[in-house]
Amino acid sequence: MKKLKKLLLLCASLIATLAIAAGCDFLNNDSGSDSLPDSSTESSSSTPETPEDPEDPEDPEDPEDPEDPVTPGDPVTPGDPVDPEVPSNPNVPHTTCKFGEWQLTQTFSCTTTGEMTRYCIYNTDHKETEVIPARGHDYQNNGLCECGDEPTLPTLPDSGYVNIADPNSGIGKTDNYSDDPAYNRYILSVGGYYTAETAYYSYSYYDSNNNFQFVTDEGYACWIEFSISEPGQYAIVTKGNPNGLTLTRYDADSNYVNTTSPWESRTMDNGNLICTVNCDEQHFSTSWITVCCFKGTEAGQTVDFTIVKIDEPAWTATTVYEEIEAKQINGKVAPEGSAGEKPTEVPYSTSGIFLDEETGYYCMPNGDIIYAAISMPASRQFAGGTTAFSNLLANTDRNFKIHMETMPNGNHLVYDYKKMLLKQPNGLETENNANSYEAMANSDGLYPVTQELYEFLVLHAKNHTPAVAPDSQYKDNAWLAVCYYYKAMIVGSEEYPEQVTLSDDKTFTVTQFDEDTDYYFTLAYTGSATSVTISINTYNVRLFVGNDSYVNTEDTLNIQNVEVNVSDLSNIVFHCFDTLYENREIEIVIDVVAN
Fold first, then answer.
1. 433 pLDDT band (50/70/90 cuts)?
2. How far apart are CA 376 and CA 461, in angstroms?
3. CA–CA distance, 275 with 40 (Å, rounded to integer)
4. What is the mean pLDDT of residues 8-15?
């Protein structure tokens, strides 16, 4: 700015000098015409020229702002690469690579492989690549792959079909399956031995040819239920297409037909009807069943069809788990709370939270560090407040696995934060045990929220609604469900009650710390008695024991020998309500009641 200002002053001075030399006075020429100046005006030769202001030396305290350097704390994520170009290289010194998202760098298809790449955000010379295998054909669109290819189908013979309704065929008809003949089914098997049970009969059938036949019954549907012996893509194909015949596939089990989501067949160029179904490795079992339905408009029409495997199972997306490790805790020790401080929940309504770049920790607006409950139970995150992240065992590790995105190859990327948080993922020792947040937590089970811990908490809150959910206006602060800060406690306050331990008969006094203020005690008894009695020999005092209350008035001492169960001692409140007696002593007598 200073250089620009000097340049403008220099230009103005030069213009003024030229104007004087030309005998012009632009500043005083109000007529707007091109008239000559008055003859009485002295020329520039008779008026000494004002020397130009010497250029001020550059202010060493205000140098030209250099470009902001890129630091590991403020990385620049490379953009999508355009093959064969590589994203710009920030070239930031680093010890561990942090990779960006996977990017598709070479396309793939049913028959050709592709490639995806991800680059280190600190130095794009460092990258990881992964080959995307050819997907293979997917014929679920009734025998048409998206690439346009069709499967190779067998030539259907003119004869040799097994009539599924023939009682001698070994297949049989489930006459007792339903009172409605439209829902009678035939039980078939493809490529192996299979038994299907209904409420009344059990049928089994094996036929190496898989060529079947039935005769249409006007007004009724012929339901075909079949199973397979191995995963794959299968087709139901008719030989020809009798007038008005329709073929539809449903997803079903042996006792239920889902008629709300049918897949209609396709008529092939040769006139045959084809309907396909896919059973992948994940869903295959010996009880896998699918159902198709033939409907004819005329009775007595012979329908020949086959069931055949046309390809291996169609590709289905898999879940890719990427383990996240703690990288921002090395060499750091979680601070302990100071004397007289107690972990206190960060209110959802808190605003102005910031990341302290010097410590690397998130802080309250006043600078108090925000901690996450790692091994300390968090009452707002998990119901009842009896569970901590460290107590979530292997059967609930879904709490640590968060779906991030669909990768360029179609798979699902999931970040697994278990290794980052816990010392012993899945109960097993690991070489990085010492680098987990649980291992580094302080004696309260808390660790300051770093950037990577913050990112986990935000994602976790989106995937697992806290047991005590924030108001809708504070939904963006749901990640605070497990967050605490150390707050200075006033002895005798509700948040920090005075701790009094009883053993035998005991009389003790309390000095009221403020007028007309509740004073809280937590009493504990170490003996074997089941109850105690409490007497207070001070006026204008109220005693609360759970939902019960007792009061000493100005005239009467009513709090005498009040019996209290030992289990209720921690739920006692003393209230001094006479403001005329500030800082007075309250005498409390507690007697142990024998069993």
1. low
2. 17
3. 107
4. 46
